[in-house]
Structure formats: structure tokens, C-alpha cells
Specification:
99 residues; single chain; 4 helices
Length: 99
């Protein structure tokens, strides 16, 4: 783990949270529609996709397997947080065994 990883994770989590709050704040001023609701729900996923794409581009097999795990569990369970945590756990386990 690099020394800057905790700081990067905190910044990315804050960005996702800020996007979520900004979306709900915008609801006060924008008329509610199905399109707006879909955009608000997709924002955190877009942030996570950007994070995952960077990790995959810079990484190798471990990152690819962790991302595949997270995508599969997200599709099966519909729980993005649990899927992301499982992806991190897979990456940590693979690193622990020397990959």
C-alpha cells in the first residue's frame, strides 16, 4: 500500500458524497423527472467507474480479478458497497499470496 492511498480513498469518497449531496440539493430547484432521478442514481456509479478504470489501466492481473469480482457481485447482489468491499478483499488476498 502506498502512503498516498488513504488520502486518495478519502478524496474519492468525499467526491462521491459531494456528488450525491449536490444531486439532492438540486432537487429543490429542478422539477422532478425520471431522467433527473436516473442521473442522480448514476453519479456515484460513474465516480466508481472512473476510479476502477484508472486502477485497471495502471494495474495488472490482481486489479483485473478484483474488478471482475466487484462487477459480478454488483450484478448479482445489486449492492455496490458490498461488491466494492469484496473487490478490495480479493485484491488484498491475491497480494497476500504473492500475486
Amino acid at each position: 500500500m502506498t502512503p498516498s492511498l488513504p488520502a486518495m480513498l478519502a478524496v474519492m469518497a468525499a467526491a462521491a458524497l459531494l456528488c450525491r449531496f449536490a444531486g439532492y440539493a438540486a432537487m429543490r430547484f429542478l422539477p422532478r423527472s425520471a431522467r433527473l432521478d436516473a442521473a442522480l442514481k448514476a453519479t456515484p456509479l460513474a465516480v466508481m467507474a472512473g476510479i476502477a478504470a484508472q486502477a485497471l489501466a495502471a494495474g495488472g492481473l490482481v486489479e483485473a480479478l478484483a474488478l471482475a469480482t466487484a462487477i459480478a457481485l454488483s450484478a448479482i447482489s445489486r449492492n455496490d458497497i458490498a461488491a466494492a468491499l469484496a473487490g478490495v478483499a480479493v485484491a488484498a488476498a491475491l497480494r497476500a499470496v504473492g500475486l
